[in-house]
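stage 2 :: seqdesign
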Protein backbone atom coordinates (compact mmCIF):
# COMPACT_ATOMS: atom_id res chain seq x y z
CA UNK A 1 0.00 0.00 0.00
CA UNK A 2 2.82 2.37 0.82
CA UNK A 3 4.45 1.60 -2.53
CA UNK A 4 1.19 2.30 -4.40
CA UNK A 5 0.62 5.48 -2.40
CA UNK A 6 4.12 6.82 -3.08
CA UNK A 7 3.76 6.00 -6.78
CA UNK A 8 0.44 7.86 -7.00
CA UNK A 9 1.98 10.88 -5.26
CA UNK A 10 4.89 10.85 -7.68
CA UNK A 11 2.57 10.55 -10.69
CA UNK A 12 0.36 13.43 -9.48
CA UNK A 13 3.47 15.53 -8.85
CA UNK A 14 4.71 15.07 -12.41
CA UNK A 15 1.24 15.61 -13.93
CA UNK A 16 0.38 18.76 -11.98
CA UNK A 17 3.80 20.39 -11.78
CA UNK A 18 4.58 23.06 -14.39
CA UNK A 19 7.09 22.72 -17.20
CA UNK A 20 9.85 20.36 -16.05
CA UNK A 21 12.62 21.64 -18.28
CA UNK A 22 13.06 25.33 -17.40
CA UNK A 23 16.54 25.09 -15.85
CA UNK A 24 19.69 23.34 -17.18
CA UNK A 25 19.73 21.22 -14.01
CA UNK A 26 16.36 19.74 -15.05
CA UNK A 27 18.11 17.73 -17.76
CA UNK A 28 21.05 16.47 -15.70
CA UNK A 29 21.58 12.82 -16.62
CA UNK A 30 21.60 10.11 -13.98
CA UNK A 31 22.38 7.19 -16.32
CA UNK A 32 21.96 6.25 -19.96
CA UNK A 33 21.91 2.94 -21.86
CA UNK A 34 20.75 1.47 -25.18
CA UNK A 35 17.61 -0.69 -25.11
CA UNK A 36 17.66 -4.29 -26.27
CA UNK A 37 15.20 -5.80 -28.72
CA UNK A 38 12.69 -6.96 -26.08
CA UNK A 39 12.75 -3.60 -24.30
CA UNK A 40 12.18 -1.77 -27.59
CA UNK A 41 9.12 -3.96 -28.23
CA UNK A 42 7.80 -3.19 -24.74
CA UNK A 43 8.35 0.54 -25.31
CA UNK A 44 6.60 0.31 -28.66
CA UNK A 45 3.54 -1.51 -27.29
CA UNK A 46 3.29 0.94 -24.38
CA UNK A 47 3.57 3.99 -26.65
CA UNK A 48 0.91 2.57 -28.99
CA UNK A 49 -1.40 2.11 -26.00
CA UNK A 50 -0.80 5.58 -24.54
CA UNK A 51 -0.82 7.47 -27.88
CA UNK A 52 -3.88 6.31 -29.89
CA UNK A 53 -2.81 8.23 -33.02
CA UNK A 54 0.54 6.41 -33.13
CA UNK A 55 0.89 3.31 -35.32
CA UNK A 56 3.73 0.92 -36.18
CA UNK A 57 4.91 3.03 -39.10
CA UNK A 58 4.90 6.17 -36.97
CA UNK A 59 6.97 4.50 -34.23
CA UNK A 60 9.48 3.33 -36.84
CA UNK A 61 9.69 6.91 -38.12
CA UNK A 62 10.42 8.22 -34.64
CA UNK A 63 12.96 5.47 -33.92
CA UNK A 64 14.44 4.34 -37.27
CA UNK A 65 16.43 1.14 -37.20
CA UNK A 66 14.79 0.19 -33.87
CA UNK A 67 17.64 1.96 -32.06
CA UNK A 68 16.50 3.51 -28.78
CA UNK A 69 18.66 5.07 -26.05
CA UNK A 70 17.08 5.34 -22.62
CA UNK A 71 18.29 8.28 -20.52
CA UNK A 72 17.17 8.75 -16.94
CA UNK A 73 17.34 12.28 -15.52
CA UNK A 74 18.04 13.23 -11.93
CA UNK A 75 14.57 14.80 -11.62
CA UNK A 76 13.06 11.33 -12.16
CA UNK A 77 11.92 11.65 -15.78
CA UNK A 78 13.08 9.24 -18.49
CA UNK A 79 13.87 10.36 -22.06
CA UNK A 80 13.94 8.00 -25.05
CA UNK A 81 16.27 9.13 -27.85
CA UNK A 82 16.58 7.78 -31.40
CA UNK A 83 19.67 6.84 -33.37
CA UNK A 84 20.35 10.55 -34.13
CA UNK A 85 20.31 11.41 -30.38
CA UNK A 86 17.04 13.29 -30.81
CA UNK A 87 14.70 13.09 -27.78
CA UNK A 88 11.38 11.68 -28.96
CA UNK A 89 9.39 10.42 -25.96
CA UNK A 90 9.42 11.56 -22.32
CA UNK A 91 8.17 9.42 -19.42
CA UNK A 92 7.67 11.76 -16.43
CA UNK A 93 6.53 8.96 -14.08
CA UNK A 94 10.00 7.78 -12.96
CA UNK A 95 10.28 4.86 -15.43
CA UNK A 96 6.77 3.51 -14.71
CA UNK A 97 5.62 4.48 -18.25
CA UNK A 98 2.22 5.69 -17.07
CA UNK A 99 2.47 8.68 -19.41
CA UNK A 100 4.21 9.11 -22.78
CA UNK A 101 4.80 12.74 -23.77
CA UNK A 102 6.05 13.33 -27.33
CA UNK A 103 8.70 16.01 -27.75
CA UNK A 104 8.70 18.87 -30.26
CA UNK A 105 11.04 16.78 -32.43
CA UNK A 106 8.46 13.97 -32.50
CA UNK A 107 5.59 16.38 -33.20
CA UNK A 108 7.58 17.93 -36.06
CA UNK A 109 7.64 14.48 -37.71
CA UNK A 110 4.06 13.52 -36.71
CA UNK A 111 2.04 16.70 -36.03
CA UNK A 112 -1.19 14.73 -35.50
CA UNK A 113 0.36 12.45 -32.87
CA UNK A 114 -1.53 14.23 -30.09
CA UNK A 115 -4.87 16.10 -30.43
CA UNK A 116 -4.10 19.79 -30.70
CA UNK A 117 -5.50 23.04 -29.36
CA UNK A 118 -5.25 26.18 -31.47
CA UNK A 119 -4.53 29.48 -29.76
CA UNK A 120 -6.18 32.64 -31.03
CA UNK A 121 -2.97 34.66 -31.53
CA UNK A 122 0.76 34.13 -32.04
CA UNK A 123 1.43 36.33 -28.99
CA UNK A 124 0.22 33.49 -26.77
CA UNK A 125 3.19 31.37 -27.89
CA UNK A 126 5.63 34.03 -26.66
CA UNK A 127 4.12 33.89 -23.16
CA UNK A 128 4.12 30.08 -23.07
CA UNK A 129 7.73 29.87 -24.27
CA UNK A 130 8.69 31.87 -21.16
CA UNK A 131 7.23 29.09 -18.99
CA UNK A 132 3.58 30.10 -18.61
CA UNK A 133 0.65 27.70 -18.80
CA UNK A 134 -2.11 28.11 -21.38
CA UNK A 135 -5.13 30.02 -20.11
CA UNK A 136 -8.56 29.48 -21.62
CA UNK A 137 -8.80 33.10 -22.72
CA UNK A 138 -6.14 32.37 -25.36
CA UNK A 139 -7.86 29.30 -26.86
CA UNK A 140 -9.58 29.52 -30.24
CA UNK A 141 -13.02 28.08 -29.41
CA UNK A 142 -14.15 27.70 -33.02
CA UNK A 143 -11.27 25.29 -33.77
CA UNK A 144 -12.47 22.91 -31.03
CA UNK A 145 -15.73 22.06 -32.80
CA UNK A 146 -14.21 19.36 -35.01
CA UNK A 147 -11.62 18.23 -32.42
CA UNK A 148 -12.17 15.47 -29.82
CA UNK A 149 -13.85 16.69 -26.60
CA UNK A 150 -11.57 18.15 -23.94
CA UNK A 151 -11.03 15.94 -20.90
CA UNK A 152 -9.26 16.80 -17.66
CA UNK A 153 -5.80 15.22 -17.51
CA UNK A 154 -5.79 14.60 -21.28
CA UNK A 155 -2.55 15.09 -23.21
CA UNK A 156 -2.83 17.90 -25.76
CA UNK A 157 -0.48 19.80 -28.07
CA UNK A 158 -0.74 23.52 -28.78
CA UNK A 159 -0.25 25.25 -32.12
CA UNK A 160 -0.75 28.70 -33.59
CA UNK A 161 -3.07 29.54 -36.52
CA UNK A 162 -1.47 28.89 -39.89
CA UNK A 163 1.23 26.55 -38.57
CA UNK A 164 0.53 22.79 -38.55
CA UNK A 165 3.43 21.90 -36.22
CA UNK A 166 2.70 22.23 -32.47
CA UNK A 167 5.08 24.24 -30.31
CA UNK A 168 3.98 22.95 -26.90
CA UNK A 169 2.56 19.84 -25.24
CA UNK A 170 0.87 19.55 -21.87
CA UNK A 171 -2.06 18.13 -19.89
CA UNK A 172 -5.54 19.62 -19.65
CA UNK A 173 -6.37 21.14 -16.27
CA UNK A 174 -10.13 21.23 -16.99
CA UNK A 175 -12.66 19.43 -19.15
CA UNK A 176 -14.86 21.06 -21.81
CA UNK A 177 -17.81 21.22 -19.43
CA UNK A 178 -15.73 22.84 -16.67
CA UNK A 179 -14.32 25.35 -19.17
CA UNK A 180 -17.82 26.36 -20.27
CA UNK A 181 -18.98 26.69 -16.67
CA UNK A 182 -15.98 28.95 -15.98
CA UNK A 183 -16.80 31.09 -19.01
CA UNK A 184 -13.61 30.04 -20.77
CA UNK A 185 -11.37 31.81 -18.30
CA UNK A 186 -8.67 30.50 -16.00
CA UNK A 187 -5.94 27.90 -16.37
CA UNK A 188 -6.66 25.48 -19.21
CA UNK A 189 -3.48 23.52 -19.98
CA UNK A 190 -0.46 22.77 -17.80
CA UNK A 191 2.71 23.09 -19.87
CA UNK A 192 4.98 20.03 -19.81
CA UNK A 193 7.35 20.75 -22.71
CA UNK A 194 7.67 23.74 -25.01
CA UNK A 195 9.80 24.71 -27.98
CA UNK A 196 13.10 26.26 -26.87
CA UNK A 197 13.24 24.74 -23.36
CA UNK A 198 16.14 22.70 -21.97
CA UNK A 199 14.71 19.42 -23.28
CA UNK A 200 14.59 20.82 -26.81
CA UNK A 201 18.22 21.92 -26.44
CA UNK A 202 19.29 18.28 -25.87
CA UNK A 203 18.69 17.55 -29.57
CA UNK A 204 20.29 19.18 -32.59
CA UNK A 205 18.00 22.23 -32.18
CA UNK A 206 16.48 21.81 -35.63
CA UNK A 207 13.79 24.43 -36.31
CA UNK A 208 10.56 22.62 -37.35
CA UNK A 209 9.58 25.20 -40.00
CA UNK A 210 9.83 28.87 -40.95
CA UNK A 211 7.24 29.96 -38.36
CA UNK A 212 9.42 29.02 -35.36
CA UNK A 213 11.51 31.91 -34.02
CA UNK A 214 13.63 32.30 -30.91
CA UNK A 215 10.97 34.13 -28.87
CA UNK A 216 7.66 33.23 -30.53
CA UNK A 217 5.95 31.01 -33.06
CA UNK A 218 3.92 32.34 -35.96
CA UNK A 219 2.27 31.06 -39.13
CA UNK A 220 4.48 29.39 -41.70
CA UNK A 221 3.56 30.78 -45.08
CA UNK A 222 4.95 28.40 -47.70
CA UNK A 223 3.82 28.57 -51.28
CA UNK A 224 3.40 24.91 -52.21
CA UNK A 225 3.43 25.75 -55.93
CA UNK A 226 6.84 27.42 -55.62
CA UNK A 227 8.20 24.41 -53.76
CA UNK A 228 6.82 22.08 -56.44
CA UNK A 229 8.35 24.23 -59.20
CA UNK A 230 11.76 24.22 -57.48
CA UNK A 231 11.60 20.45 -57.09
CA UNK A 232 10.64 20.02 -60.74
CA UNK A 233 13.52 22.25 -61.86
CA UNK A 234 15.95 20.31 -59.67
CA UNK A 235 14.80 16.99 -61.11
CA UNK A 236 14.92 18.37 -64.64
CA UNK A 237 18.56 19.32 -64.14
CA UNK A 238 19.40 15.73 -63.24
CA UNK A 239 19.64 12.98 -65.80
CA UNK A 240 16.41 11.07 -66.25
CA UNK A 241 16.24 7.36 -65.55
CA UNK A 242 16.66 6.59 -69.21
CA UNK A 243 19.62 8.88 -69.78
CA UNK A 244 23.02 7.38 -70.53
CA UNK A 245 26.53 8.66 -71.24
CA UNK A 246 27.22 11.04 -74.11
CA UNK A 247 27.25 9.28 -77.45
CA UNK A 248 24.91 6.49 -76.33
CA UNK A 249 21.20 6.13 -76.92
CA UNK A 250 18.96 8.30 -74.74
CA UNK A 251 16.54 5.46 -74.02
CA UNK A 252 17.34 2.51 -71.78
CA UNK A 253 17.47 -0.93 -73.38
CA UNK A 254 14.32 -2.90 -72.67
CA UNK A 255 15.93 -5.26 -70.13
CA UNK A 256 17.52 -2.30 -68.33
CA UNK A 257 14.10 -0.63 -68.19
CA UNK A 258 12.54 -3.77 -66.69
CA UNK A 259 15.25 -4.15 -64.04
CA UNK A 260 15.14 -0.44 -63.14
CA UNK A 261 11.37 -0.68 -62.74
CA UNK A 262 11.82 -3.64 -60.39
CA UNK A 263 14.45 -1.69 -58.44
CA UNK A 264 12.13 1.31 -58.01
CA UNK A 265 9.33 -1.00 -56.86
CA UNK A 266 11.70 -2.59 -54.34
CA UNK A 267 12.58 0.85 -52.96
CA UNK A 268 8.88 1.60 -52.57
CA UNK A 269 8.34 -1.68 -50.68
CA UNK A 270 11.24 -1.07 -48.24
CA UNK A 271 10.11 -0.06 -44.76
CA UNK A 272 12.07 2.50 -42.77
CA UNK A 273 12.51 -0.05 -39.97
CA UNK A 274 14.40 -2.34 -42.38
CA UNK A 275 17.14 0.20 -43.08
CA UNK A 276 20.09 0.00 -43.34
CA UNK A 277 19.76 -2.92 -45.77
CA UNK A 278 22.68 -4.46 -47.64
CA UNK A 279 22.51 -4.29 -51.44
CA UNK A 280 22.71 -8.10 -51.67
CA UNK A 281 19.70 -8.54 -49.39
CA UNK A 282 17.88 -5.77 -51.25
CA UNK A 283 18.27 -7.66 -54.54
CA UNK A 284 17.29 -11.08 -53.19
CA UNK A 285 14.72 -10.05 -50.61
CA UNK A 286 13.06 -7.06 -52.32
CA UNK A 287 13.77 -7.09 -56.06
CA UNK A 288 13.53 -10.82 -56.86
CA UNK A 289 9.92 -11.21 -55.59
CA UNK A 290 8.83 -8.29 -57.82
CA UNK A 291 9.80 -10.03 -61.06
CA UNK A 292 6.93 -9.55 -63.52
CA UNK A 293 5.12 -12.54 -64.95
CA UNK A 294 7.17 -14.04 -67.77
CA UNK A 295 10.54 -13.29 -66.15
CA UNK A 296 12.02 -16.49 -64.75
CA UNK A 297 15.22 -15.03 -63.25
CA UNK A 298 16.56 -11.63 -62.33
CA UNK A 299 19.99 -11.39 -63.97
CA UNK A 300 21.61 -8.00 -63.34
CA UNK A 301 24.70 -9.10 -65.30
CA UNK A 302 22.64 -8.75 -68.50
CA UNK A 303 22.06 -5.06 -67.81
CA UNK A 304 24.38 -2.17 -68.63
CA UNK A 305 25.14 -1.82 -64.91
CA UNK A 306 26.48 -5.41 -64.63
CA UNK A 307 26.54 -5.26 -60.81
CA UNK A 308 23.84 -4.65 -58.21
CA UNK A 309 25.90 -1.96 -56.46
CA UNK A 310 26.12 0.05 -59.69
CA UNK A 311 22.37 -0.36 -60.27
CA UNK A 312 21.49 0.97 -56.81
CA UNK A 313 24.23 3.59 -57.23
CA UNK A 314 22.41 4.85 -60.33
CA UNK A 315 19.30 5.27 -58.17
CA UNK A 316 21.41 7.21 -55.66
CA UNK A 317 22.66 9.52 -58.43
CA UNK A 318 19.04 10.29 -59.28
CA UNK A 319 18.24 11.13 -55.64
CA UNK A 320 16.02 8.13 -54.91
CA UNK A 321 18.16 6.72 -52.10
CA UNK A 322 21.47 7.01 -50.25
CA UNK A 323 24.20 4.37 -49.99
CA UNK A 324 26.71 3.96 -47.20
CA UNK A 325 29.29 1.38 -46.18
CA UNK A 326 27.82 -0.31 -43.07
CA UNK A 327 29.86 -3.08 -41.44
CA UNK A 328 31.96 -3.55 -44.56
CA UNK A 329 28.84 -3.98 -46.75
CA UNK A 330 27.41 -1.37 -49.12
CA UNK A 331 23.93 -0.71 -47.77
CA UNK A 332 20.88 1.47 -48.42
CA UNK A 333 20.52 3.82 -45.46
CA UNK A 334 17.87 6.28 -46.67
CA UNK A 335 15.05 6.38 -49.25
CA UNK A 336 13.40 9.52 -50.60
CA UNK A 337 9.76 8.43 -50.73
CA UNK A 338 8.70 11.79 -52.17
CA UNK A 339 10.80 11.27 -55.32
CA UNK A 340 8.72 11.51 -58.50
CA UNK A 341 9.89 8.10 -59.77
CA UNK A 342 8.82 6.37 -56.53
CA UNK A 343 5.49 8.15 -56.35
CA UNK A 344 4.69 7.33 -60.00
CA UNK A 345 5.79 3.67 -59.76
CA UNK A 346 3.61 0.98 -61.29
CA UNK A 347 4.66 -2.60 -62.22
CA UNK A 348 5.51 -3.39 -65.84
CA UNK A 349 3.65 -6.04 -67.82
CA UNK A 350 5.93 -7.99 -70.13
CA UNK A 351 4.98 -8.88 -73.66
CA UNK A 352 5.31 -12.43 -74.98
CA UNK A 353 8.94 -13.51 -75.15
CA UNK A 354 10.32 -10.78 -72.88
CA UNK A 355 12.34 -11.90 -69.87
CA UNK A 356 12.02 -15.61 -70.64
CA UNK A 357 8.94 -17.80 -70.17
CA UNK A 358 7.83 -18.58 -66.69
CA UNK A 359 6.32 -22.02 -66.40
CA UNK A 360 4.53 -21.37 -63.14
CA UNK A 361 1.02 -19.99 -63.48
CA UNK A 362 -0.32 -17.20 -61.37
CA UNK A 363 -1.39 -18.51 -58.00
CA UNK A 364 -4.38 -17.07 -56.15
CA UNK A 365 -3.27 -14.82 -53.35
CA UNK A 366 -3.88 -15.79 -49.74
CA UNK A 367 -6.39 -13.66 -47.90
CA UNK A 368 -6.61 -12.54 -44.28
CA UNK A 369 -9.95 -11.47 -42.87
CA UNK A 370 -10.16 -9.69 -39.52
CA UNK A 371 -13.27 -10.48 -37.49
CA UNK A 372 -14.27 -9.90 -33.88
CA UNK A 373 -15.80 -11.87 -30.99
CA UNK A 374 -18.07 -10.02 -28.62
CA UNK A 375 -18.51 -10.32 -24.85
CA UNK A 376 -22.01 -10.90 -23.53
CA UNK A 377 -22.70 -7.20 -22.81
CA UNK A 378 -22.52 -6.23 -26.51
CA UNK A 379 -24.39 -9.22 -28.01
CA UNK A 380 -27.79 -7.44 -28.21
CA UNK A 381 -26.20 -4.30 -29.66
CA UNK A 382 -24.42 -6.26 -32.42
CA UNK A 383 -27.33 -8.64 -33.09
CA UNK A 384 -25.35 -11.77 -32.15
CA UNK A 385 -26.69 -14.89 -30.44
CA UNK A 386 -23.54 -16.40 -28.90
CA UNK A 387 -20.14 -15.16 -27.77
CA UNK A 388 -18.52 -17.45 -30.35
CA UNK A 389 -20.20 -15.65 -33.27
CA UNK A 390 -17.89 -13.55 -35.46
CA UNK A 391 -18.61 -10.13 -36.94
CA UNK A 392 -16.62 -7.82 -39.22
CA UNK A 393 -15.68 -4.22 -38.51
CA UNK A 394 -18.01 -2.98 -41.27
CA UNK A 395 -20.95 -4.81 -39.69
CA UNK A 396 -20.03 -3.47 -36.24
CA UNK A 397 -20.03 0.09 -37.58
CA UNK A 398 -23.37 -0.53 -39.31
CA UNK A 399 -24.99 -1.94 -36.13
CA UNK A 400 -23.67 0.94 -34.04
CA UNK A 401 -25.07 3.51 -36.50
CA UNK A 402 -28.45 1.74 -36.42
CA UNK A 403 -28.47 1.86 -32.61
CA UNK A 404 -26.98 5.35 -32.26
CA UNK A 405 -29.52 7.48 -30.35
CA UNK A 406 -27.90 10.78 -31.34
CA UNK A 407 -25.42 10.86 -28.47
CA UNK A 408 -23.52 8.50 -26.19
CA UNK A 409 -26.28 7.22 -23.88
CA UNK A 410 -25.95 5.67 -20.42
CA UNK A 411 -25.52 2.13 -21.78
CA UNK A 412 -22.58 3.07 -24.01
CA UNK A 413 -21.00 5.21 -21.27
CA UNK A 414 -21.13 2.34 -18.76
CA UNK A 415 -19.91 -0.27 -21.24
CA UNK A 416 -17.16 1.68 -23.02
CA UNK A 417 -15.73 3.98 -20.35
CA UNK A 418 -14.21 3.25 -16.95
CA UNK A 419 -15.56 4.62 -13.70
CA UNK A 420 -12.99 7.43 -13.47
CA UNK A 421 -13.43 8.35 -17.14
CA UNK A 422 -17.22 8.62 -16.83
CA UNK A 423 -16.95 11.31 -14.14
CA UNK A 424 -15.64 14.00 -16.49
CA UNK A 425 -17.44 12.94 -19.67
CA UNK A 426 -20.60 14.37 -21.10
CA UNK A 427 -22.32 11.86 -23.39
CA UNK A 428 -23.52 14.65 -25.65
CA UNK A 429 -19.98 15.58 -26.68
CA UNK A 430 -18.72 12.02 -27.30
CA UNK A 431 -19.08 11.21 -31.00
CA UNK A 432 -19.85 7.94 -32.73
CA UNK A 433 -16.28 7.61 -34.02
CA UNK A 434 -14.88 7.61 -30.48
CA UNK A 435 -17.48 5.04 -29.40
CA UNK A 436 -16.66 2.80 -32.38
CA UNK A 437 -12.95 2.98 -31.58
CA UNK A 438 -13.55 2.01 -27.95
CA UNK A 439 -16.01 -0.71 -28.93
CA UNK A 440 -13.47 -2.38 -31.23
CA UNK A 441 -10.94 -2.24 -28.39
CA UNK A 442 -13.39 -4.10 -26.12
CA UNK A 443 -13.90 -6.92 -28.63
CA UNK A 444 -11.57 -9.88 -29.26
CA UNK A 445 -9.82 -9.77 -32.63
CA UNK A 446 -9.76 -12.96 -34.72
CA UNK A 447 -7.87 -13.46 -38.01
CA UNK A 448 -9.03 -15.96 -40.63
CA UNK A 449 -6.25 -16.94 -43.03
CA UNK A 450 -7.25 -18.67 -46.27
CA UNK A 451 -5.16 -19.98 -49.18
CA UNK A 452 -5.43 -22.61 -51.90
CA UNK A 453 -2.85 -25.37 -52.13
CA UNK A 454 -1.52 -25.27 -55.73
CA UNK A 455 -0.80 -29.04 -55.70
CA UNK A 456 -3.98 -30.52 -54.21
CA UNK A 457 -6.17 -27.52 -55.17
CA UNK A 458 -7.86 -27.70 -51.77
CA UNK A 459 -8.66 -24.62 -49.69
CA UNK A 460 -6.85 -24.27 -46.39
CA UNK A 461 -8.45 -22.09 -43.72
CA UNK A 462 -6.93 -21.24 -40.33
CA UNK A 463 -8.54 -19.30 -37.45
CA UNK A 464 -6.02 -17.38 -35.32
CA UNK A 465 -6.65 -15.35 -32.18
CA UNK A 466 -5.36 -11.82 -32.61
CA UNK A 467 -3.33 -10.58 -35.56
CA UNK A 468 -1.31 -12.71 -37.97
CA UNK A 469 2.39 -13.13 -37.14
CA UNK A 470 4.78 -13.22 -40.11
CA UNK A 471 6.38 -16.43 -41.32
CA UNK A 472 10.05 -16.08 -40.42
CA UNK A 473 13.01 -17.04 -42.62
CA UNK A 474 16.27 -16.67 -40.70
CA UNK A 475 19.81 -17.49 -41.77
CA UNK A 476 21.71 -18.59 -38.67
CA UNK A 477 25.06 -20.11 -37.88
CA UNK A 478 24.71 -23.24 -35.77
CA UNK A 479 27.65 -25.38 -34.78
CA UNK A 480 29.79 -23.64 -37.38
CA UNK A 481 27.34 -24.24 -40.26
CA UNK A 482 25.00 -21.88 -42.06
CA UNK A 483 21.37 -22.94 -41.77
CA UNK A 484 18.13 -21.45 -43.02
CA UNK A 485 15.48 -21.80 -40.30
CA UNK A 486 11.75 -21.47 -41.06
CA UNK A 487 9.42 -20.78 -38.14
CA UNK A 488 5.89 -19.53 -37.59
CA UNK A 489 4.44 -21.57 -40.48
CA UNK A 490 1.70 -23.32 -38.48
CA UNK A 491 -0.56 -20.27 -38.76
CA UNK A 492 -0.31 -20.48 -42.57
CA UNK A 493 -1.48 -24.09 -42.81
CA UNK A 494 1.87 -25.88 -43.26
CA UNK A 495 2.81 -29.13 -41.52
CA UNK A 496 6.44 -29.24 -40.33
CA UNK A 497 7.31 -32.71 -41.67
CA UNK A 498 5.58 -32.20 -45.02
CA UNK A 499 7.18 -28.79 -45.43
CA UNK A 500 10.63 -30.22 -44.68
CA UNK A 501 10.18 -32.95 -47.32
CA UNK A 502 8.97 -30.51 -49.99
CA UNK A 503 11.78 -28.01 -49.36
CA UNK A 504 14.43 -30.75 -49.32
CA UNK A 505 13.36 -31.92 -52.79
CA UNK A 506 13.03 -28.40 -54.18
CA UNK A 507 16.31 -27.03 -52.82
CA UNK A 508 18.14 -30.37 -53.19
CA UNK A 509 19.60 -30.11 -49.71
CA UNK A 510 19.18 -31.67 -46.29
CA UNK A 511 16.09 -30.44 -44.44
CA UNK A 512 14.48 -31.62 -41.21
CA UNK A 513 11.74 -30.63 -38.76
CA UNK A 514 12.57 -30.07 -35.10
CA UNK A 515 11.21 -28.43 -31.97
CA UNK A 516 11.75 -24.68 -31.99
CA UNK A 517 14.74 -23.51 -29.98
CA UNK A 518 12.88 -20.26 -29.24
CA UNK A 519 9.42 -20.90 -27.86
CA UNK A 520 8.26 -17.45 -29.01
CA UNK A 521 8.90 -18.36 -32.64
CA UNK A 522 6.46 -21.26 -32.66
CA UNK A 523 6.13 -24.88 -31.64
CA UNK A 524 8.29 -26.26 -34.47
CA UNK A 525 10.88 -25.20 -37.00
CA UNK A 526 12.16 -26.47 -40.34
CA UNK A 527 15.94 -26.29 -40.86
CA UNK A 528 17.69 -26.33 -44.25
CA UNK A 529 21.44 -26.75 -44.57
CA UNK A 530 22.91 -23.65 -46.22
CA UNK A 531 21.80 -20.11 -47.01
CA UNK A 532 18.70 -20.20 -49.22
CA UNK A 533 17.73 -16.54 -48.85
CA UNK A 534 20.68 -14.38 -49.92
CA UNK A 535 22.34 -14.62 -53.33
CA UNK A 536 19.78 -17.13 -54.62
CA UNK A 537 17.36 -16.89 -57.51
CA UNK A 538 14.66 -18.87 -59.28
CA UNK A 539 13.43 -22.09 -57.66
CA UNK A 540 16.36 -22.03 -55.24
CA UNK A 541 15.18 -18.74 -53.74
CA UNK A 542 13.26 -19.84 -50.63
CA UNK A 543 10.79 -16.91 -50.44
CA UNK A 544 9.64 -17.71 -54.01
CA UNK A 545 8.27 -21.05 -52.75
CA UNK A 546 5.98 -19.30 -50.27
CA UNK A 547 5.00 -16.72 -52.88
CA UNK A 548 3.84 -19.59 -55.10
CA UNK A 549 1.73 -20.80 -52.17
CA UNK A 550 -0.16 -17.51 -52.30
CA UNK A 551 1.65 -15.62 -49.52
CA UNK A 552 2.83 -12.05 -50.06
CA UNK A 553 6.17 -10.53 -49.08
CA UNK A 554 4.46 -8.63 -46.25
CA UNK A 555 3.69 -12.02 -44.65
CA UNK A 556 7.41 -12.96 -44.61
CA UNK A 557 10.01 -11.81 -42.10
CA UNK A 558 13.49 -12.30 -43.59
CA UNK A 559 16.46 -12.10 -41.21
CA UNK A 560 20.05 -12.70 -42.29
CA UNK A 561 21.70 -10.62 -39.59
CA UNK A 562 23.15 -13.48 -37.51
CA UNK A 563 24.83 -15.58 -40.19
CA UNK A 564 28.32 -14.14 -39.88
CA UNK A 565 30.95 -15.40 -37.47
CA UNK A 566 31.40 -13.21 -34.42
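stage 2 :: out
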Amino acid sequence: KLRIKSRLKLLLFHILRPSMFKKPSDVDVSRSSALGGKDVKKLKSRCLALLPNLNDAGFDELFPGKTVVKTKLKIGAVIYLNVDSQPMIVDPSNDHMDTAIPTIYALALLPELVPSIEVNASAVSSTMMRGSDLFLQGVNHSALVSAPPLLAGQLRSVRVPGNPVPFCVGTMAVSAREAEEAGWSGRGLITKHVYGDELWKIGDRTVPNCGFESSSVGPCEIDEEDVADELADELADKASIGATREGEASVLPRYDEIVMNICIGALVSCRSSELPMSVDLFVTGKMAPLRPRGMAFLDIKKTSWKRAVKLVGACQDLGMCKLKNVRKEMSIVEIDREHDALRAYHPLELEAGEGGDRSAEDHPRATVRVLYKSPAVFLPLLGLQHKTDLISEEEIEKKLKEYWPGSCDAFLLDALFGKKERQGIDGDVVGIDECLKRLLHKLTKQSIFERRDPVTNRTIQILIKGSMSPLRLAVLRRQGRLMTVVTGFEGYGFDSKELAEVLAKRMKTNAFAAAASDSKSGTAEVCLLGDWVEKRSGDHYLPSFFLEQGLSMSMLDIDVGRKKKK
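stage 3 :: structure notes
- The first strand starts at residue 29 and ends at 34.
- The CA atoms of residues 379 and 385 lie 7 Å apart.
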